[in-house]
TrEMBL record:
Its EC number is 4.1.1.33. The keyword Magnesium does not apply. Residues 179-288 form the Mvd1 C-terminal domain. NCBIfam families: mevDPdecarb. This is diphosphomevalonate decarboxylase. It is an enzyme of class 4 (lyase). GO terms for biological process: isopentenyl diphosphate biosynthetic process, mevalonate pathway. It comes from Aerophobetes bacterium. The gene is mvaD. Residues 7-165 form the Diphosphomevalonate decarboxylase-like N-terminal domain.
Amino acid sequence: MKVTAIANSNIALIKYWGKRDPKLMLPQNGSISMTLDGLYTITTVEFHPNYERDILILNGRELSEGKEYEEVVAFLNIVRETAGISEKAKVATENNFPTAAGLASSASGFAALALAASKAAGLNLDKRELSILARRGSGSASRSIEGGFVEWMRGEKEDGSDSYAVQIAPKDHWDFRMITTIVSTEEKKVKSRAGMAQTVKTCPFYRDWLLTVDEDLKAVREGILNKDFTQVGETAEYNCLKMHATMITTKPPLIYWNPATMEIIHAVQAWREEGLECYFTIDAGPNVKV
C-alpha cells in the first residue's frame, strides 16, 4: 500500500532540551508548542516485496547512506516490528522550508513519516499511539500529530507509554500569530540530538534549568487557556533564553546564533519599548520566531 501524509512543523513555547532515554526518545522535561500553519512536510511511503533495500528520497535527492538515511531506516524497522511485516519501503519526503536550520523540520518530518508509514504497513493507530511512534523518530515530532497548542508530557514510565502529546487548545481557540524569520538556510553543524546529549553531559547549569521548567509549563498552559498574551510571551521568551544559556555553557559551547539573530532580538526589545507587544523564541538554530 502507498500512503501520503502531511504534517506541520511546531515551535516550542516551552522548550525540551535533553533526553533521559535516547533510544526511546524520552525527554528530561515536558514541553508546550504551537503547531504552525505554513511550514509542513509531505511524505509518501510504500512497502513492497520488490524493494531489496529501503529507499529514501529527501527533498528530491536520493540518499543511501549517512545519518539521515540511518535514522529513517531505524524508524521503519520500528514500524515493521509493530506491524509484523518484513517488506522494505520507499520513502519520498519533502519540506517546504529549510531542513535542519532550527525550524523543527525533524518534527514535521517524523510526524509525517509516522502517519504514512504506519498506515502503509496496515496499522490503524490513534493519536496517542501515533504521538508515541513519532516520538521514536524525533522527540518534537510527538507534538506535530496534533494541531493548535500542544503539550508533550514527560511521563514517568521506563517504557515511555505515558510520554506523548495532547492538545491543550485547538487552532481556533485563540488568534495567536507567529512570524518565522529566516536568517539562514544552512544546516547547523551540530544537530539537536547530538547537541542536547552534550549539554546533559557537560553543562554545569543543566539541572538548574530542569528545576524551572514545571513552573514555566504551568504558566504557559494557563496563559493559553486564559488567552493571556503577556503571560505566554514573557514566559516563552525567558524559557528560550534559559535553554540557550545551557547550550552556551556546554563543552564545547553550542552557539547557534549569528549577527542577524541578535539584530532581531534587539528589534523585538525595541518594539516592546515603543508599545508594540511582541516576544521572541529561538530553537537550536539561528532563525528567530516572533
